[in-house]
Design goal:
Layout: H1 4-16, H2 21-27, H3 36-42, E1 48-49, H4 50-57, H5 61-69, E2 77-78, E3 84-86, H6 88-102, H7 107-119, H8 134-146, H9 150-161, H10 166-183, H11 190-211, E4 219-225, H12 232-242, E5 247-251, H13 261-268, E6 272-276, H14 283-295, E7 300-303, H15 306-309, H16 311-317, E8 320-321, H17 328-339
Parallel strand pairs: 4-5, 4-6, 6-7, 7-8
Antiparallel strand pairs: 1-3, 2-3
Length: about 350
């Protein structure tokens, strides 16, 4: 059974390319600077000319060449005549570069960020079960999403929660698929599919956060997003990762003004305040956070990719960091230490 990505890719090629990638391969067999054995191995993946990569990603060919020559960020296959051919992995790399640049990382620094991302250790055992691999779960989810079948999606979601903790299900299966769908919205129906999945996941995460709060909690923590730094589902999943049997996490609405968090802390009296973000910290944001830390009576910490993208500013600010890409247990342990529990 084809995977979700292969299905979307074949649909895109069917409607937008004059010739499928296999034909591109056959036309260029004699001019490729590789052996027939190497060509056979590459035939397992599509190869795209630079003009098609530009159309799929929105990055013009001049920029793609610069990323290759000047920064070494991508390494397409070359024909003997010098034409570039890009694999799916190359296209995913281009999209990753786009994402980091949009988050404010200079193109000259993107290589370091990508290297750190690839070097991160596996934090937990990959989800697996005899007869039900991770790919199998993704296939079932994709089938429900392709049909916009809410009840079928609910059944698969329920089966996942019957086997693994909800935080692990979100981090290892649901969020990666959600992120992949978000990147593939250029295909016809892609935006509708992502919105359908996003709405479903946000509702389930909110419900679990509401019903799973300990009564009474040993400690209450407020969780808010740094302005413009994440989407609602990412913030909700962070709430699931931080909450536990004795730690209650109250997720504040997206768009919560930083300057009013002091008022909320005064009225609610939480034991801690966590701010979540996925973009680099600016000097102005650093100043805002330093003023906020002085105006609240509880510990303040940052979490998310912002902690890795702005290490120098974070150190200068003196704010605590919960880090990024950690397991729920590690995050909760750090939070408890911050709160003195």
């Amino acid at each position: 059974m084809p995977s979700r990505r292969e299905g979307l890719q074949s649909q895109r090629l069917r409607y937008t390319m004059a010739a499928p990638p296999r034909r591109i391969l056959s036309r260029m067999t004699e001019s490729l600077a590789m052996s027939p054995t190497d060509l056979d191995s590459l035939a397992q993946d599509e190869l795209f000319p630079i003009r098609e990569v530009s159309r799929l990603t929105g990055i013009n060919p001049i920029t793609l060449r610069a990323w290759e020559r000047r920064y070494g960020l991508i390494r397409p296959t070359r024909t003997l005549s010098g034409h570039r051919l890009y694999s799916r992995a190359d296209i995913e790399q281009v999209r990753s570069i786009q994402t980091w640049i949009q988050r404010g990382i200079p193109v000259s620094k993107v290589s370091d960020v990508l290297s750190r991302t690839r070097a991160r250790p596996v934090l937990h055992t990959a989800i697996d079960l005899p007869g039900r691999s991770q790919d199998c779960w993704e296939t079932q989810l994709t089938q429900a999403l392709d049909a916009f079948d809410g009840p079928a999606l609910e059944r698969v979601y329920g089966q996942l929660l019957n086997i693994w903790p909800i935080a692990q299900v979100f981090v290892e299966i649901l969020l990666p698929l959600w992120q992949s769908l978000r990147r593939d919205t250029e295909a016809f129906g892609g935006t509708s599919q992502w919105l359908f999945f996003d709405s479903f996941l946000r509702a389930r995460a909110q419900l679990r956060l509401q019903l799973g709060q300990p009564q009474p909690p040993e400690a209450l923590v407020l969780l808010a997003a740094l302005p413009g730094q994440c989407l609602e589902l990412e913030l909700l999943v962070q709430g699931l990762l931080l909450s536990s049997e004795d730690l209650a996490v109250r997720v504040l609405a997206l768009g919560q003004p930083l300057e009013e968090l002091g008022l909320l802390c005064e009225r609610i009296q939480p034991q801690g305040l966590v701010l979540y973000g996925n973009h680099p910290m600016t000097l102005e944001l650093q100043r805002q956070l330093e003023r906020l830390a002085q105006g609240v009576d509880c510990p303040l910490a940052l979490s998310g990719e912002v902690t890795e993208l702005s290490p120098q500013l974070l150190t200068q600010s003196g704010l605590a960091s919960l880090g990024h890409q950690q397991s729920a247990g590690d995050l909760q342990a750090q939070l408890r230490h911050l709160l003195g529990l």
